[in-house]
From TrEMBL:
Organism: Thiocapsa rosea
Alphabetically ordered keywords of this record: Membrane, Transmembrane, Transmembrane helix
Domain of life where this protein originates: Bacteria
Spans through the membrane: 30-53, 101-121, 149-166, 173-202, 222-241
Protein name stated in the entry: Uncharacterized protein
Length: 280
């Protein structure tokens, strides 16, 4: 018997191999890796100057040649992303340098948004980073980097996560108070985002965690602020919309505006048209 045990022990390898199919990454490490890969993907986007696509070229040349910011149709909030390039035009007239600064500034918007979102969720619910992360992965096929609608979404994601995970922190309320008027100064569709955030704030005001009346009043006030922002944005859009903006109210035009020119859009549009034909 001892001899048999000795033979069995000798037949075992000195170092056991890992179990086949075993995941070597923890959930947190996998999320961090995905986060890093998505952020790194924005580096070549900036280097090749993709933010200059479409309206971006007009924005850049107005900044580089005329030294003035661009805020089409009084979208004053869009000036925030142009400030670094605008300041640099006072120091240099090197177009290549200004082009890279312009591109990296706009590329930094989604990257900073992701980093802020990760700082919010990493300790309590790291898996929630998948919401903004997957959104940005899907949106990397949209080349309109200067879109005020995208800028609005980059600002909204951190607030949504703060409202879900840290509703009773003063920072959340301060950020919401700044965000409400800012959405009014960005894209015409900002009314939809402001309306959604108004509902989020209203839910927090009524949620069980908001047992303190002080927090309930604060969230109710924030809900009212977002609601006012949404209403004012709707009025501004209806009164001051340009011909181009009005043309986007047509169903086909709206779909083409919101969805990029990709294979996925090609698959979605026939379904949309079929549904529209069936409705008629």
């Amino acid at each position: 018997m001892p001899k048999a045990e000795a033979l069995t022990a000798a037949s075992k390898p000195e170092h056991a191999l890992p179990v086949a199919g075993r995941c070597v990454l923890s959930e947190r490490r996998a999320l961090q890796l995905g986060l890093a890969l998505v952020m790194l993907a924005y580096v070549p986007i900036a280097l090749v100057g993709l933010p200059l696509f479409g309206d971006g070229a007009y924005y850049f040349f107005k900044l580089a040649l005329d030294g003035v910011p661009v805020f089409p149709n009084l979208r004053l909030g869009s000036v925030l992303a142009q400030l670094p390039t605008l300041a640099a035009t006072r120091l240099t007239d090197d177009v290549v340098l200004l082009r890279h600064l312009f591109s990296f500034t706009y590329v930094a918007l989604p990257v900073v948004s992701l980093l802020v979102c990760w700082s919010i969720v990493r300790e309590r619910r790291p898996e929630l980073i998948l919401l903004p992360l997957l959104f940005l992965v899907a949106n990397q096929i949209n080349f309109s980097a200067v879109s005020e609608l995208l800028f609005s979404l980059y600002l909204v994601w951190p607030f949504v996560l703060l409202a879900a995970l840290a509703p009773n922190r003063r920072l959340t309320l301060i950020y919401g108070a700044v965000l409400a008027p800012l959405l009014l100064l960005l894209h015409p569709l900002g009314f939809a985002l402001a309306g959604f955030l108004s509902l989020v704030a209203l839910l927090n005001a009524r949620f069980d965690r908001a047992t303190d009346r002080t927090w309930t009043r604060a969230w109710s006030g924030l809900a009212a602020a977002f609601a006012v922002s949404a209403v004012l944005r709707v009025i501004s859009t209806l009164v001051g919309a340009t011909g181009y903006e009005r043309s986007l109210t047509e169903p086909d035009a709206a779909v083409r505006y919101l969805l990029p020119e990709t294979l996925s859009q090609g698959l979605l549009l026939p379904g949309w048209r079929s549904w529209g034909s069936w409705r008629r």
